[in-house]
Amino acid sequence: MSVSKAPVFAQLQINKLPTLPHVLLEILDACQSDTASFRQLSQLVSHDAVITSKVVAMANSAGYFRRQRITGIDQALLLIGTERTKTIAITAAVQQFFSKFNAANPSYLKEFWLRSLTCALLAKTLATLTSYSQPDQAYLVGLLHNIGDLVLRCNFPDEYAKVDSATNITPAGRLSQEESLLFTNHCEVGAWLLERWELGDFAAAAVRYHHEPLSLLVDAQHLVKLVYLASQLSGPGQQPDTLSLSAAEELFNLTPELVTELLQRLETETEEIALGLGIVLPDGKSQEAEIQQEDARKQVALAEQIRNISLGHTASEHLRQARNSAGEENILELLRAAEETIFMLFGYARLQVYQLDEEQSLQQIGMTVLEADTTSDEPLQISLQAGQSQFAAALLDNRIISSVDWGGSEDALPIVDRLALKRINCPFVVLVPMRLRKKNVGLMVLGAANQTDLGRSAKNLLRLFANDLAKNMARIERTVSRNTLDWDAEQLQAQLREIVHEANNPLAIIRNYLELLTAKLDDQPGLLPDIEIIKEEIDRVGSILLRLREVKQQETAADQMNINQEITDLTNLFEASLFATHNTACQLDLDDRLPPQRGQRSYLRQVLINLLKNAVEAMPEGGELHVSTRHKVNLNGRPYVEITVQDSGPGIPEEILTQLFEAGQSTKAGPHEGLGLSITKNLIQELKGSISCRNTRQGALFQILLPERAVTG
């Protein structure tokens, strides 16, 4: 193709960069395994520059809110999660089969992978040795230092072939040829990518200048010098050349002996990583034909993995549809669909499911369509004890066991295994553990007329299916349980409302008699303390009724609060207790346009209780209490909900008012003095709002402002 003088960057395709199938296989296995740890996944991703670049680019994209730049692989993986990492790996794997570059350049890809990894390991080692504060950042930039070379080769293979054809070319000469053919070079492209991925100016500079003359690097930033030296030392050849050793001494005063020792140690580490990934590196021992044959096997294995993932998605969708159609009734429809799916996609004729019960025993559940002709007295139960059955061993050891493992003969098996196998009535049987949130929940038993392949890829697929089945079963069970609880809770709530209503009637009668009794006992002040005790007990009864009202049905939206309703309920409840015993009249001025808001109802309730009680206690001789709400109060261009609570008391002393919401600041004495308002402020902050207090001519006024977050739908 001909390259115009228009900016080359606008023509670059960077989303289809190839990588080694060896790495993709291991990452896909880790993503699909429920036993692989985050650390394992992070290590696998960190061994490949292409997958790392995709993960970091996604983590630093506009779709993810972050307070600071992501400069480490662990940070990026934590942010985007395992599922998106799996999507990246699958997409990269699929693209392998549509890339002519991958098939035509297997040796280059392996060389690129090895050099990138070596540079990353060196950069991190040197960072630690020279006390650089972010060794993980040094590793990341070292891993990506040559990414521009891969980008240009993939986008302009014909032009880059001319660059490669030159012999005995120096790094400076290579950059010059790239400039003449492509109007840019791989260092500039790499730096542009790191800037695009928001890895920082120093990271981009480290990539941009990693082929500059040594004399220009002496006063460079620490990260730039680290990546420069790591790049020089990770070049072709077993031993460091004179220029690399000079750079080590000039930049960090490192002796040739130390540098050589570091390289030998890292060479061993890279060989171990390659071995773990199944990558055969040229070592003078293996024949080129053997290496190519092994690489071809990895490519075939990757193709099989992609096929199985596709089958797994199909099976998952079938189970999801079956679960939706099963609804609340039972789990049989799901099991029927699972049996159909396992037959159509994998060739197994029978499916039985054993669920782990509270006594840690496996109990067969349901009877699927293809078992309808079998005669069984009752569901089979298998004790989950080590060494007592193959069924128990599969679950306890979390491993797939087939009839091949016991030689196809049942004679040596425990009786309980024989009974279970007789029920499935197939010559070839596979036991697959079912796990949910990394915990054992059951066992899937598959039966077939003939032995089927159980390679690594097939086992991974069976595990995915078993875990997906467990997940769908759990969802149906939760739906049934939730509906039952919702019905019980609704009945309970209705009874509680009735009890609270009835209890308020005698409280009102007691209140009236207390007022009459207080008037009659004006000439007997010695009895007034007894009256106060009775009033306190009425307050306590009111508190008990308040707690009863808090027992409510399960809500679909747990973060929904109806502010006006909460205020009305509380003031109605306090009317016959707190307000009555303290001679308080309460007036409400509630904005009926105020819709339900998003927020923790329990937080709002606690805030209102604290403020209402404080207001009443601020008026020991009785008085008036005014509570109001306002919808869409504008503050700095943003809408808020306003709640005010005002009493007619003497107000709050100025020396306390300025520090009112700090613990220990209060006009009251006692073991909890000032704690209520401190808690109130913290709860309001949790609701993303603010609270303030001021004295007015009528008394103290508390104002709460909550961001307008109306519940929609």
Secondary structure: elements and pairs:
Layout: H1 21-32, H2 38-46, H3 49-59, H4 73-96, H5 100-104, H6 106-129, H7 135-143, H8 147-155, H9 157-165, H10 171-182, H11 186-196, H12 201-208, H13 222-233, H14 242-252, H15 256-276, H16 288-326, H17 332-346, E1 350-356, E2 361-365, E3 381-383, H18 390-396, E4 401-402, H19 415-424, E5 428-436, E6 439-448, H20 456-520, H21 528-549, E7 560-561, H22 563-575, H23 578-581, E8 584-589, E9 597-598, H24 601-617, E10 623-635, E11 638-647, H25 654-657, H26 675-686, E12 690-695, E13 700-707
Parallel strand pairs: 8-10
Antiparallel strand pairs: 1-2, 1-6, 2-3, 4-5, 5-6, 7-9, 10-11, 11-13, 12-13
Helix pairs in contact: 1-2, 1-4, 1-16, 2-4, 3-4, 6-7, 6-13, 6-15, 7-12, 8-9, 8-11, 11-12, 12-13, 13-14, 16-17, 16-20, 20-21, 22-24, 24-26
Helical stretch tally:
26
CATH topology of the largest domain: Hypothetical protein af1432
CATH superfamily of the largest domain: Hypothetical protein af1432
* Low-confidence regions: 1-6, 368-375, 551-558, 669-674
Q: Report the top-level CATH class of the largest domain.
A: Mainly Alpha
The average pLDDT is 77
Number of strands: 13
By helix and strand content, what is the structural category?
alpha+beta
Name the shape in a single word.
flat
The portion of residues assigned to helices is: 55-70%
Radius of gyration: 36 Å
Largest sheet: 6 strands, antiparallel
Number of domains: 3
Percent strand equals: 5-15%
How many angstroms separate the termini? Answer: 55 Å
Give the oligomeric state. single chain
What's the CATH architecture of the largest domain?
Orthogonal Bundle
Largest sheet, spatial ordering of strands: 3-2-1-6-5-4
